[in-house]
Amino acid sequence: MIIVLTACLFLSGSLMFSYWIALLRKKNLRAVGDGNPGAMNLWKSAGYQFGAAGMLLDFLKGYLPLLFIIGSGYSEGMLIVPLALAPIAGHAFSPFLKGKGGKAIAVTFGVWSAITAFEAALAYAIILALLAAAIRWLYRSKQHSAHTDGLQVVFGMLLLYLYLYARAFPAAIQWVWLGNMAILVYTHRSEIRAGLKKVLVRGK
């Protein structure tokens, strides 16, 4: 049963709503910005209404199916780990796009909202907001790059672990965090490489 449920959650996560909405608007998200087939590029190419709709759908595909399974009692103990990671992995490696999915940010919020009753998702949102404020203050009038935003997402997830540890979340939730962190590092690998390159250039 756990294998079937994990497969169903992976399939749910792999539904690329933003990409499909863009196609209906005759837009190819692969040709927009960084080529990410997610809600942010939908926002840029089709407007905030469609972008917000894409974000909501990506959130819900991680939240609703997982919440239903949790309520059904199939996620006890370590079983939550594959179930929670499946929608995130589905979005990041969508078979509908030949394994090349999106950044998996909105679906990450959906998953954490389901497994912690919104607590960790809210903590992550606050962390990202504080990081964004700090970046704006550091850059002030200067325009910061998209690479900075990607690094912010990954670093924010790293900081989220401190919150989970301080709140004494069970080991299973911490394993979900580890898997989620690994996926976000992969989906933001270009931003991480660019950030490390800048650090190395400045260090010379």
Automatic annotation (TrEMBL):
Superkingdom in the source lineage: Bacteria
Chain segments annotated as transmembrane: 42-60, 67-89, 109-138, 150-166
Keywords: Acyltransferase, Cell membrane, Lipid biosynthesis, Lipid metabolism, Membrane, Phospholipid biosynthesis, Phospholipid metabolism, Transferase, Transmembrane, Transmembrane helix
UniProt key word NAD: no
CC annotations in GO: plasma membrane
Keyword Lipid metabolism: yes
InterPro entries on file: G3P_acylTferase_PlsY (IPR003811)
GO biological process, one term: phospholipid biosynthetic process
Single GO MF descriptor: acyl-phosphate glycerol-3-phosphate acyltransferase activity
Name of the protein: Acyl-phosphate glycerol 3-phosphate acyltransferase
Species in which this protein is naturally found: Paenibacillus endophyticus
